[in-house]
Fold this protein.
Amino acid sequence: MSSSNCSTQNDFAPLSFTSRNNRFRRSMDRAINDGILIPWRKNEPEKPKTALQLLTVDKGGLTYQPAIGEYEDIAEIEFASMYPTLMVTRNISPETVLCSCCKNEAVPEAGYNICEKRRGLIPLALEPLIKRRKIYKQLMKNADERTRVIYGARRAAIKWMLVTCFGYMGYRGASFGRIEAHEGVTSWGRETLLRAKEIAEDADFSPRRSNQHARSPPDFMACSVTVV
């Protein structure tokens, strides 16, 4: 649904706050609609890794602390919905990571290949949520107080659905989960922050702080680089 058709609180059905069942139902609904087979019980073991491979891919987020001091003219580069957006734009999904049909090294550091011939189930399920959350943000600007509260609650519900989708992808019991896809998201997250840091340095800024906590939901939606 485009933003031009969204003008009242009835444009979208209400969303409840997330739970494991909500996350599972969203991906299952998409799989059923697209004719994708749903595993009755997940029985795919994690592929073996050497100690060096684990050190490379199992880093989580990227965080570095600033030197203690007083600073002026501070700016911040913030990435809203960073992990879900990376899943959508980089086509990260359990069935697309390490596919058997494409030969590339799309995932930074890890070198995992990602399918280039089809869109993954997880990106297809998340993209409408990301778009809907952006639409609610725009609608809130011109809404009355009561409607703004309704839109805000729906944005919050979508936020927590997006927050948990990343962790659930790495859950060993998730029907549509895979640890390599989980690792691919954090790898792209680290790469994105490092690129932002380099862009800031090229513009004569000095990066002071980076915040990307892969296992901390409150920081999950607002990965950032602070520069001075």
Summary: The chain is about 45% helix and 10% strand.
